[in-house]
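sorry for the late reply, my laptop died twice this morning and i had to redo everyting from scratch. anyway the thing you sent over, i finally got around to it. pasting the sequence first so we're on the same page, its 408 residues, then the predicted structure underneath. double check i copied it right bc i was rushing
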Amino acid sequence: MADSLKSKNAPEEKLQVSRRGFLKTGAAAAAIGVLGAIKAPSKVAEAAVSNYEYITPKKGQWSKLKPEPNYGGASVSYAEHNDQWLGTSKIVGTVKKFKEKDMGFALVAQGLLGPKAQAGFYTIGIRHPLSDALGWAISPIFGENIVDGQPKPEKLPIPDPEQMSMHIKDVAYYLRADEVGIGKMPEYGYYSDKMNPPMMGIIGGMVPRGTPLHKGAFMDMRRRPEELLEAAQALTPLVIRFGMGQMFSTPPKANPKIILLPLHLPTMLKTADFDKFYWPMFKTIIEAFVANGVIPMPFYEGDWSRYYDHLQDLPAKKTLGWFEHGDPKELKQKLGNTMCILGLFPLTLLQYGTKEECITKAKELLDDLAPGGGYIFSTDKELLSAADGKAENIIAVNKFVMEYGIYK
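ok and here's the structure:
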């Protein structure tokens, strides 16, 4: 009886979890539900959340942040038409289909909602913990061997659908959603017309800002492949001339001339399309820079592992390769004799990790990549502001690399 009274009168226990921990845990657990069905069922999800000391919600709850759904008195089924207030929102007319290029993110990307919103769209994604968590979980199932071809009729099994749905809802609640529900997509929920170029191309940076969202290379690869190829070939000399102009527009210096080439598109292409529409022109551009005494430094964004064999054909020991993702041992083995390797140290670790975690990762990269030379320690993305890394982590990593990362 005493225990019962104690439990009833005890103050409600508050949820104690940091913003970073909650976002990364919720997103990782939600995404890992799909990965777990492919590789290592529920044990993977358990491992993902245990790293953040996250206690999973009880069975039968709506979610952890909201054990019971509360629609504020509004009756909700499909929200096709509902003039009752739901949090801060009210649907005052029948929902109609519209074109993907008219959605909010597309308008922001084009700069139609102001320069501040556009700048935020292009910069916040790579540094946001939610984006980071989803990115590493999605990348293993993004390959053409998984997404191409006819879908199988049977559904992919999910180890714990109830827990996965709770995590999805809690991430949305933490991001200030009024209310969250998971259900079958109604017909009016699909866009009437798909956007071209696709949103992933815009987020990845391969589409120049201001490009009208009704034409693009992706569609041309299917509708007018030969004309697209001719256009790419015709533009190649102009790209070389532009780059060389940038390099030699200033007085000669003692330091070598290095040109940065951010590369977004290749990881979004099928290998066959990369071979036809991208690689020949890219190789020509690199060879032209090298022949004129310029050191190209491509930023190989995304996962380039399926293109390592291509990169072996670049001029040997004449380029720098800045990599965002990849197995350091495989990179060293395949490209160590071709280029000087940079990157791979996670920027998010400098932001959210401990000094010990940062030093452990730095040692791992130095041990795998430094032997034999041809390596420059650097992060997987550029630090653009003071908020991109904790000062104590940056200082600790720099001190460690200066002491440990020397050739004896």
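The chain has two domains: 19-72+125-184, 217-404.
thats about all i looked at so far, will dig more tmrw
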